[in-house]
Amino acid sequence: MCEIFAMSSRHPTAVTLSMGALARHGRPGGHLDDGWGVAFHDGADASLLREPGAAGDSPLLRLLADRPPRAALVLAHIRHATQGTRGLRNTQPFARELGGRMHVFAHNGNLLGQPPARGRFRPVGETDSETAFCRLLDRLAPLWAGGVPPLADRLGALAGLAAELRALGPANFVYTDGDALFAHGDRRIQPDGRVAPPGLMLLERACDMDPEVLSPASSDLAGIDLAQGISGQHVALVASVALSAEPWRALRQGEMVAIRGGVVEHAG
């Protein structure tokens, strides 16, 4: 299955990503080589970088590791193709404009028998994940007619679609509209081969409690740079599997969390 990583922080920070390490954490042998992508949010806009090949062979990814952008919202995905050919159009994360903001989405799972997207938003590729994203944006579009909607309204639209997706297959996803990061946990392939919860893991940290959020020594996935001495920094991380020995919490099947500024504002 694909692997997901997302970060929300109160202050922009640098995240050093190793997609190859993420693959090794999530799948024996790390054989997820059908594409990778990462999005760095900057206010209402986002920088999106994607390649339809193996992360371990990517000079671009090595450049990002050496010179990571600073951002307060980051989404990353590595792909194991289940629907759609290997190609840029099927490589996540996916991004679209809605309400004058860039919205970014990444999904882990395999949704069978999903209705097509027939509204304003249409897939460019053939994946179930992009179709789910387009269907989500069609539901959210009326809410964005007058600016950033209340968090509760966005959560309602997300929860409604998530319940439909769970009936079709594993539906773990992360989504951001630049204001908040949303994560929905479901099921995934476990080490013993079962498809079962948990599908996503969550870690919350604050630098005024402990200056190390994830250091290179504790995880070969991500080093989060808090060396700027910013007081009151908060960081929340979401990943397909726990990436360190720290107290990651498994999301319950069907649980949705909303995170702003590195703090979980809703979980249920």
If you had to describe this structure to a student in words, what would you say it looks like?
The structure is a single chain. The chain has 268 residues and is of the alpha+beta class. It has a single domain (3-267), classed as Aminohydrolase, N-terminal nucleophile (Ntn) domain (Glutamine Phosphoribosylpyrophosphate, subunit 1, domain 1). It is 17% helix and 34% strand. It has 4 helices and 16 strands. It has helices at 19-26, 59-66, 128-140, 151-166, and strands at 3-17, 36-42, 45-51, 70-78, 94-98, 101-108, 172-176, 181-184, 188-189, 195-196, 201-206, 222-225, 234-239, 249-250, 256-260, 263-267. Strands 1, 2, 3, 4, 11, 12, 13 and 14 form an 8-stranded antiparallel β-sheet that branches. A 6-stranded antiparallel β-sheet has the order 5-6-7-8-15-16, with helices on one face. A two-stranded antiparallel ribbon has the order 9-10. A hairpin with a 2-residue loop joins β15 and β16. α3 packs antiparallel against α4. The longest helix has 16 residues, at 151-166.
What is the number of domains? 1
Number of strands: 16
Mean pLDDT: 85
SS element count, helices: 4
First-to-last CA distance: 25 Å
Strand content: 25-35%
Radius of gyration: 17 Å
Task: Give the helix/strand class.
Answer: alpha+beta
Helix content: 10-25%
Which residues sit in consecutive blocks of at least 5 with pLDDT less than 50? 209-222
CATH hierarchy class name: Alpha Beta
Task: Give the overall silhouette.
Answer: globular
- Summarize the biggest pleated sheet: 8 strands, antiparallel
The CATH architecture category equals 4-Layer Sandwich
Taken in chain order, the helices and strands follow as EHEEHEEEHHEEEEEEEEEE
CATH H level, superfamily name: Aminohydrolase, N-terminal nucleophile (Ntn) domain
What's the CATH topology name? Glutamine Phosphoribosylpyrophosphate, subunit 1, domain 1
